[in-house]
């Protein structure tokens, strides 16, 4: 390394805002992820298979229980610390981080926020321990951005049971989840309601979506529900409409922004290390002006994203982070991520299109993160309504 070189992608030292105890725990998590999880990542991505041994590693690291102390987890942690943990997970592998987030954020978050006390005590302890894995079934074959108004999956009540009919698509963990949170429109009052459907329920079929170019280890599923019977006891009792779904997405959307930052950080680390080591025309390419320009642009995007995410976490810790702030963070950081991975791939030249250097994998994975939890355009409309008072949604 050249004298006085600073390789840290956290160029402004945002991690210094963590406490000493948080930084020590973060270092422990990072070391564990590098040692136990990263070795699984490439083979899982190439084979498009989920490495189920990672579930035991997540359980061992206790990364599902920090917000659920009454169910066997730790006391709640600061949003800022949780954000840095998400960054580290995605820095190691976004596919496995997404599978983790579907379980801990979307599925557990839906049950925690929308379930009764009895339901929370029935399901969350096993989910905290990773004994039962969750999935979140919202998106439909014909309804992505328009799923709020165009949801076609229906729920019909018959006595003390509900009958679900419809289809869902892009459901992470869907091929193997023990508990699937299914969102469906009640035919009686036209309101969206939530149901926990157990694996193997009659009428429930799942099939893996093949041919993905991004997040290949995530087992996204097409799900079909044909007369699936769900007892009233398994309907999320505190869900009264799509607004409750939106609240789950508001909380998890900020985590997607941290995911994007984690991918950006890794891409920058790889590009900088390659530039220092790669020799052309008799010297490392890091010494050429155009290469330095690429690296500095990447670092600037990362630093701007860090600043936004740190402030969003501070607002969350003060219970002042709204849907518009989360939407702006998701739209901004994923756009910056797209630019960072593109510049990193450019810096690698031809070596950037093979998995040997990892950047090709990140380049592909970034496209999925850019798209899910609301596209840039949809998140822009959420912010646009907040700043103008006018809804531009069609």
From TrEMBL:
Q: What is its EC number?
A: 1.3.8.6
Mention one GO biological process in which this protein takes part, according to its record: fatty acid beta-oxidation
Write down the required cofactor(s): FAD
Report the PROSITE patterns cross-referenced here.
ACYL_COA_DH_1, ACYL_COA_DH_2
Keywords (alphabetical) are:
FAD, Flavoprotein, Oxidoreductase
Annotated Acyl-CoA oxidase/dehydrogenase middle domain ranges read 135-227
SUPFAM superfamilies in the record, alphabetically? Answer: Acyl-CoA dehydrogenase C-terminal domain-like, Acyl-CoA dehydrogenase NM domain-like
Coiled coil feature spans: none
Q: Report the residue ranges that make up the Acyl-CoA dehydrogenase/oxidase C-terminal domain in this protein.
A: 240-387
The Gene Ontology terms for molecular function here are: flavin adenine dinucleotide binding; glutaryl-CoA dehydrogenase activity
Looking at the record, the residues that make up the Acyl-CoA dehydrogenase/oxidase N-terminal domain are 19-129
Report the sequence similarity comment from the record. Answer: Belongs to the acyl-CoA dehydrogenase family.
> What's the protein name?
Glutaryl-CoA dehydrogenase
């Amino acid at each position: 390394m050249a004298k006085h070189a600073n390789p840290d992608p956290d160029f402004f030292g945002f991690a210094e805002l963590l406490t000493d105890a948080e930084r020590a725990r973060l270092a422990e998590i990072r070391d564990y992820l590098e040692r136990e999880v990263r070795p699984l990542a490439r083979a899982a991505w190439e084979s498009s298979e989920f490495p189920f041994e990672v579930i035991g590693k997540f359980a061992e690291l206790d990364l599902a229980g920090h917000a659920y102390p009454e169910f066997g987890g730790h006391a709640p942690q600061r949003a800022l610390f949780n954000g840095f943990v998400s960054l580290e997970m995605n820095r190691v592998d976004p596919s496995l981080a997404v599978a983790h987030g579907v379980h801990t954020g979307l599925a557990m978050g839906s049950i925690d926020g929308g379930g009764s006390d009895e339901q929370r005590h029935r399901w969350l302890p096993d989910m905290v321990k990773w004994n039962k894995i969750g999935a979140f079934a919202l998106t439909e074959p014909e309804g992505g951005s328009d799923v709020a108004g165009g949801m076609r999956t229906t729920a019909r009540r018959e006595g003390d049971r509900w009958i679900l009919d419809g289809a869902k698509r892009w459901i992470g963990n869907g091929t193997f989840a023990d508990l699937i949170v299914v969102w469906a429109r009640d035919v009686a009052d036209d309101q969206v309601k939530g149901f926990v459907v157990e694996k193997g329920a009659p009428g429930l079929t799942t099939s893996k979506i093949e041919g993905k170019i991004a997040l290949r280890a995530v087992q996204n599923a097409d799900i079909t529900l044909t007369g699936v019977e769900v007892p009233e006891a398994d309907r999320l009792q505190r869900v009264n409409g799509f607004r409750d779904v939106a609240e789950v997405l508001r909380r998890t959307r900020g985590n997607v922004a941290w995911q994007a930052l984690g991918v950006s950080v890794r891409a920058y680390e790889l590009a900088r290390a390659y530039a220092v080591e790669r020799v052309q025309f008799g010297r490392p390419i890091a010494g050429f002006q155009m290469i330095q320009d690429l690296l500095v642009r990447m670092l600037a995007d990362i630093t701007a994203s860090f600043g936004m995410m740190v402030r969003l976490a501070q607002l969350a810790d003060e219970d002042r982070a709204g849907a518009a702030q989360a939407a702006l963070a998701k739209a901004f950081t994923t756009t910056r991520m797209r630019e960072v991975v593109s510049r990193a791939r450019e810096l690698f030249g031809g070596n950037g299109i093979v998995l040997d250097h990892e950047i090709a994998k990140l380049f592909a994975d970034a496209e999925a993160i850019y798209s899910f939890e609301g596209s840039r355009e949809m998140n822009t409309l959420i912010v646009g309504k907040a700043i103008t008072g006018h809804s531009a949604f069609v």
